[in-house]
Each structure stands twice: as C-alpha cells, then as structure tokens.
Amino acid sequence: MSAQTDCEMLSIEVMEAYAGKYNLSGNKVVELFQKNQVFEKMLIQHEYLHQVSFEEVMEFVENVIADASRELVVYHGTCSEFEKINLNKSHNRRDFGKGFYTTILQSQSKEWAYRLSLREKRNGYYVYEFLFEEVPALKVKRFDRLNEEWLEFIKKNRSKGGLQHDYDVVIGPVADDNTMETVQLYMANILTAEEAVERLRYNKVNNKVNNQVSFHTEKALQYVKLVRRVSYARKDI
After folding, report:
1. Domain of residue 202, CATH code
2. Whether residues 141 and 63 fall in one domain
3. Number of H helices, E strands in the chain
4. Which of 117, 141, 159, 200 is the most exposed, having the fewest neighbouring CB atoms within 10 Å of its CB?
5. CA dist., res. 67 & res. 74, Å (int)
6. Which InterPro entries does its entry note (predicted)?
7. Which of 42, 68, 94 is at the close of a domain?
8. CA–CA separation, 162 vs 92, rounded Å?
C-alpha cells in the first residue's frame, strides 16, 4: 500500500471523527479539510502520524485547522437578555474559573439554556452567537484532552473559586454530567489522578465529551463580537 493511499484511509477516519466531535456534516468537514489543506499536511507528516495514537492524529489535524483560521463561532445559552457581556455577573467556582462561558455547539448551548429555563421557571430562553477572533495578544490555554493537567486545573478553580490563572481565554472539555462524578471523586481525594483519568477516558469512549470556550478578561472580550441573539419559547408550559 502506498503512503498516499494509506494516508487517504487515515484522513477518512479523521474526517469521520472530526464530524462527530464538532457536530458537522460530511460535506462541511470535506470543505474545511480542503480549505486548510489538511490532507496535504498529513501526507507530509505521514511517517510520524502512523507512529502515534489516533488521539494524537486528531490533535495534529485540529492544530492545523486552528493555525489556519483564528476566527471561532461560539454560542452562549441563557435566560437573560443583554447587549454587552458583563464579567462581574459571572458565576463563581466554575471549571476554568470565573468568566463568560460559551460552546462551539449551538445545540449544546440551546440545551443548557432550556435546562436553565426549567430551573428558573422561565417562559423562554436565548441563544447568543458570537464571533471570537484569536489574536497573538491574547493568552490562550488549550486542553486538547481529558488528562491530569485538565483535572487539576478544574480542581483548583472549583475548590478555591475566583480566577486561579492568568489566561484571557481557556478552551477545553466540559466537566458535565458524564464526567462530574469522576471530577468530584478526585477533588475529594477518593480517586488518584491516574484513576480519575482512566475513568474519564473510558467515559469519553462511551459518551460524547463537549468542549467549552471561556473568556476571563476584559481584554479577551475586545475580540468577541455579537452576531445574533435568538429567542425561544418553552413548548412544555
């Protein structure tokens, strides 16, 4: 089998995984990969990519796409109507510290907003769409996987509160219903870091892990522009 054919097979696997992870259609992923010359760059690094895990191949592809495009569409679900992001209203003891939280998945933000409307007994909710431009002036922290560093970062922010870091923006997995039990067991010192990571990786195989993008400084908000706000009425009232 030639290197090109071998790389084509690997790229198909990566495209399928990428589409599932970011909730994109097959055509959209193909367009994205072509635009950013992902296949060509995978072919150049063919020998390296076949010596590492599939997770590391995905990380390589995500970095290729991220380096080529520094604009990211993010969504925020809420029951509140506002024109400007106010960091002073941010909740404390969150995964990545006090800040304004968004997701790259519109469906996820809508689900969060709907759940919030149930808790707060609201008649409706909103999904905000923002365009974030990542520029070199911003200090951005990325967690590409569920690992000990991510776990310890969440533990510090959730246990101490406030902002336990100096990043403008943090991007990484959400400690949601599927992962929170493990995180809490680790925070309570019932699980070691190694045990917790092993459970998280098993959970990742059996459940979809969503990502979040959090903004923590006024400097970061200078590069976040509101695109639109969509309102929804609850149909179960």
Report:
1. 3.90.228
2. no
3. 10, 7
4. 159
5. 17
6. DUF3791 (IPR024269), DUF3990 (IPR025051)
7. 68
8. 6
Same domain, 61 and 88: no
What pLDDT was estimated at residue 130? 96
Q: Rounded to an integer, what distance in angstroms lies between the CA atom of residue 151 and that of residue 51? A: 27
Same domain for 122 and 55? Answer: no
Q: Give residue for tokens 């933000």.
A: 109
Q: Which residue has the tokens 């997995």?
A: 173
**With 60 as the cut, is the pLDDT of residue 157 above it?**
yes
Q: CA nearest 165: which of 220, 210, 211, 226?
A: 220
The 10s digit of each residue's pLDDT in 27-37 is 889 888 887 77
Residue 141 has pLDDT above 80, yes or no: yes
Rounded to whole angstroms, the Cα distance separating 181 from 199 reads: 10
Beta bridge partners, 77, equal: 127
Reduced to 3 states (helix: H, G, I; strand: E, B; else coil), residue 84 is: coil
Q: Which of 219, 30, 43 is nearest to 135 (CA)?
A: 219
Stretch (H or E) spanning 226: strand 224-233
